[in-house]
Amino acid sequence: MSKEKKSLFGLSGQAKERLIQAALDKRSESSGRQQPEDDAHSRFSSERRLKIDPSLCRFDSYPNYKDMLIQKAASEQLGLENPFFRVHEGIAADTSVVNGKECINFSSYNYLGLSGDPRVMDAAKKAIDQYGTSASASRPVSGERPVQRQLEQKLAELYGTEDCVVFVSGHATNVSTIGYLFGPNDLIIHDSLIHNSVLMGIQLSGAFRLSFPHNDWKALDRILSERRKDYQRVLIVTEGIYSMDGDFPDLPKFIDIKKRHKAFLMVDEAHSLGIMGERGKGIAEHFGISGNDVDIWMGTLSKTLGSCGGYIAGETALVNHLKFAAPGFLYSVGISPPLAAASLKALEILEQEPHRVRHIQHNGEFFKKRADEAGLDTGLSMGLSITPLIIGSSIKATRLSNLLFEKGINVQPIIYPAVEERAARLRFFICASHTEEQIESTVKIVQDQLAKI
After folding, report:
1. CATH 3.90.1150.10, domain 81-110+354-452, yes or no
2. What share of the chain is helix, strand, coil (3-state, %, to 5)?
3. I want to staple 301 with a disulfide (CB 3.0 to 4.6 A). Which of 71, 135, 256, 343 is the partner?
4. Residues labelled as active-site residues
5. In this structure, are residues 264 and 283 in contact, taking their beta carbons and an 8 Å threshold?
6. Strands, E assignment, 34-100
């Protein structure tokens, strides 16, 4: 290697960039073929290039990526193993095989055990045989499959609404629905703990955004009394069961507020379908309200319904808006037939076997009761399908998650910035198939391991 080439390796990054740019400029000048106006254009372009920081076209220079690297380095220094992206080698329910190790599993949305139910899998397999694995294009382009509309009609029937439309992603359902239906002259006001997908939808819509304190309908009423007159349309967004805290709103109060202030009400039922109500029909059944009392029902297929996707249920005009004009439906591939078939069968089983709902309600209450008796901080949980254990430190939460995994319990930490540092926690998802013995032994082990850290 020549001395010239060797010397390049000793230069700083900026020095290398200056040398490269100088060589490019010299090559351009030596061509001798440019007209005067071309020379001016070349000099102007060169000046503009020199003013642009090269880091602006590097992914590893993004500030949030640098933050990831700092967090990773800090974790390594503290000897913390990464508890995320653990590999499950089979069906994840009350138990799972993770990295070759069988464990009690509290990190699955498989609330009623229908993901992995032989009847649900058989329905998906038959749909593959009949329709293949993909819808291949958007439904307006590629046409309908009977199973897609059957699922939508079944969901509309469950909610007591006129119609329903299914999207391929739960997150995209909220983003596309809110982003399409509302605009810059509107107000969207949401619970302070609302899901990220709602926030992304609001950002896309360009609507003005306000939040109210968690589940505080009185605060919502006060805000709308002051601000409703300033906007055309208003959307109130709340959830059925909140995925971080395991609590739920006083829905009748929100319905009263939306009627008095002439607003729309949207309820995200991702975690409450199959959990709340005597037959698992969700928060509406729990409170004994009509499906028509809520303007937009949103839910997902990936939890109780053992599949993947999202849906919106409501009046015909709402559904037609989304089917014929919302980009997230119109320009997206239709839901895969085997996924639709799996959720359709799961819905049928939910109707036929309400004992599953009773089991998960009992298990959720039993877990919270035992955790409270052990002196563990369960936060706002109401003892349903989700119970957090508040640890108050991201490091401690991660350390405890790893200790529990060594003891055969799989549960994920929720750490900053997903929650405030003082609210760092372990989040337990309770399934209908968990046993009292699994729950009692888990709470005892958590108590023992927490004392060590």
Report:
1. yes
2. 50, 15, 35
3. 343
4. 243, 271, 303
5. no
6. 95-98
Cα 62-415-81 angle, rounded to 5 deg: 85
For 398-437, write each residue's pLDDT tens digit.
Answer: 999 999 999 999 999 999 888 899 999 999 999 999 999 9
Which residue in the block uniquely carries the two structure tokens 């035992």?
Answer: 370
Beta bridge partners of 265: 236
- Between the alpha carbon of residue 348 and those of residues 116, 154, 356, 383, the distances in Å are 15, 9, 13, 26
Residues 6+ apart with CB under 8 A from 336: 133, 134, 135, 168
For the chain, domain boundaries: 81-110+354-452, 118-352
Domain 118-352 has CATH 3.30.530.20: no
Which helix (H) or strand (E) covers residue 429, if one does? strand 425-429
Largest CA distance in the chain: 86
* Short-list 243, 244, 225, CA closest to 234: 225
d(CA 216, CA 43): 61
Tens of pLDDT along 172-219? 999 999 999 999 999 999 999 999 999 999 999 999 999 999 999 999
**Residue 254's closest CA among 293, 198, 280?**
293
Opening angle at CA 179, ends 177 and 111, nearest 5: 45
